[in-house]
Write a structure and sequence with these properties.
eight-stranded mixed sheet, alpha/beta, Rossmann fold
């Protein structure tokens, strides 16, 4: 055999032996002296051919290797054979899974992955890293894992957990430090998250929906633990610091996941029901964190995408209803008080005309079907939805509701009242009429912070809110809510109720719901309260 590792087979070989020769060598040519082959290291690696197998096959076709040739071949195989079957690398917010051998199981594993044929590698989301790695290790493959050295965090919990909070943390631990905990607003989900950080004691990324929630998390961590303040950082706007405990928002995390994805062992997502949105789910998919905790008052989504959410975060592992915690005294007692009003004659005539036109355009299709058809370019569906929204706004912003608000406020003098609506123009009108505080998406951040500060410090007053108040609003002594206009979403209803449920001695929270008789307002009211047990 020559130094380029060629050998000559002088005898005739059958198909079976020829196939065995090709498993570790290339056929070069045939001459009067015989057939010439050259050893192919890549074939040896791919087919997992051992040195003794090569020697045996060659011997069977009349090729006897010398001891020097065997040592030479052994050295070539040893130098060229990878130490690992699979090697993992983190690159550009993705995991590169380089294959040094053929792995048939990857075709049936059911995990989305893109094959890079030029590099014999798969590209997978970091979320799937531990799943794929564990599966391959169980199958006996040698794995070069990612070099993950998550920083330890010096943190100890110094508060006290309520019984249900302790149950929730234990369920999370039993579930492998993964899962979603669903508790009503005011039940202390943030404290549970802080206890989770203290349990893990590793770098943690906290994703919130608003900047106000970022501040609340930082202040609560400082209150309930002994962590140094310099170990807590905001990754937001101009202030982008990656610290042992890093707090960010959905929008910022989505835009900067390449910088954040491989830095944290624990991922905590607040208001986790937002996560399945197409862009936000990339936070969970591109984050390596093997330990995950989702927090929400209402994880179920009307569009059904909570199923995807549960997969990304480890399932729904713990839930308590407002009624259960109210009975134990952890949330305020509450009443749901319906207030029925009528449309004015001119409003009623316009509403009926619009609903008639809507039914003609819809042709019996549901709202969800119309939305689907509109996305597919159906102009009739688009017009039907426009007409429907115009009809809905009539009963949502009728002046009859403003009159009802004034009557309710007469009954609730001396209390702190939150008024909820869907429409900015209606919110502005109500605030003007009542000389009330106003929070909408149009209010600048600094002004919003000042309004909340003043309202929190006030002993009584009225705050008018659009959907910006559905989440992340912390006004413990608010005890009256008025829903003027809302969707049919149960989640929104529970969140708005939760805004007034923080406990206080002798407190009975009251949520007024102003509903227009004889309109879809009644249907929406019923829908958002369905499956919520014993609300009255």
């Amino acid at each position: 055999m020559e130094t380029q590792m060629r050998f000559l087979v002088k005898q005739w070989v059958d198909q079976e032996k020829f196939k065995k020769l090709l498993s570790f060598s290339k056929y070069i040519s045939r001459s009067k002296d015989g057939s010439e082959f050259q050893v192919d290291i890549q074939r040896i690696i791919r087919n997992k051919i051992k040195l003794e197998d090569i020697v045996s096959v060659l011997s069977s076709v009349g090729v006897q290797l010398t001891e020097d040739e065997i040592r030479q071949l052994s050295a070539m195989i040893s130098e060229s054979t990878p130490q690992y079957d699979v090697e993992f690398y983190f690159n550009d917010a993705n995991i590169i899974m380089k294959l040094n051998t053929f792995i048939a199981e990857l075709k049936t594993v059911g995990i989305p992955m893109k094959y890079d044929s030029s590099n014999r590698a798969y590209i997978i989301y970091p979320y799937y890293y531990s799943i794929v790695k564990d599966m391959l290790e169980e199958k006996g493959y040698k794995i070069k894992s990612l070099d993950l050295k998550f920083q330890d965090v010096a943190i100890n919990f110094k508060g006290e957990l309520r019984d249900y909070q302790e149950e929730a943390v234990n369920k999370w631990k039993e579930n492998g430090l993964k899962g979603i905990i669903a508790l009503p607003t005011g039940a202390g989900k943030t404290v549970i998250g802080i206890m989770a950080i203290a349990e893990v004691k590793k770098t943690t990324l906290i994703v919130t929906f608003t900047k106000e929630q970022m501040v609340q998390w930082r202040d609560s961590i400082a209150k309930f633990t002994d962590i140094r303040m310099e170990d807590i950082g905001f990754f937001f706007s101009e202030e982008k610091e990656i610290k042992p405990i890093t707090i960010t928002t959905y929008q910022t995390a989505f835009r900067h996941i390449q910088e954040l994805g491989d830095k944290f062992e624990l991922l905590i997502v607040d208001e986790v029901h937002h996560l399945p949105a197409e862009k936000f789910k990339k936070i969970a998919l591109h984050c390596l964190a093997p330990k995950r905790l989702g927090l929400s008052a209402t994880p179920y989504r009307d569009d059904g995408r909570h199923e995807e959410l549960f997969k990304l975060m480890g399932g729904l592992i713990y839930y308590k209803s407002p009624q259960e915690l109210m009975q134990k005294g952890y949330l305020a007692q509450f009443k749901i008080i319906p207030v029925h009003v009528e449309l004015r004659p001119d409003e009623n005539n316009l509403y009926k005309d619009l609903m008639k036109k809507f039914k003609e355009l819809a042709g019996g299709r549901s709202i969800s079907k119309l939305l689907e058809d509109m996305r597919n370019g159906d102009k009739t569906a688009k017009e039907a939805l426009r007409v429907f929204n115009n009809a809905k706004k009539i009963f949502s912003v009728t002046e009859s509701k403003l009159d009802a608000i004034k009557q309710i406020l007469e009954l609730e003098k001396g209390n702190k009242v939150l008024i909820f609506t869907q429409y900015v123009d209606q919110a502005e009108e109500i605030a003007r009429e009542l000389n009330a505080y106003l929070l909408t998406g149009n209010v600048k951040r600094k002004e919003r912070e000042q309004i909340l500060k003043e309202f929190k410090e006030a002993k009584e007053g009225v705050l008018v809110l659009t959907t910006v108040g559905d989440e992340g609003l912390d006004i413990p002594d608010a005890n009256v809510g008025i829903i003027v206009a809302g969707t049919g979403s149960k989640r929104q209803f529970v969140q708005r109720l939760g805004r007034i449920l923080r406990p206080k001695d002798g407190k009975v929270a009251r949520l007024y719901e102003i509903v227009v008789r004889g309109t879809l307002d009644e249907v929406l009211s019923k829908k958002r309260k369905d499956e919520i047990n014993n609300l009255n």
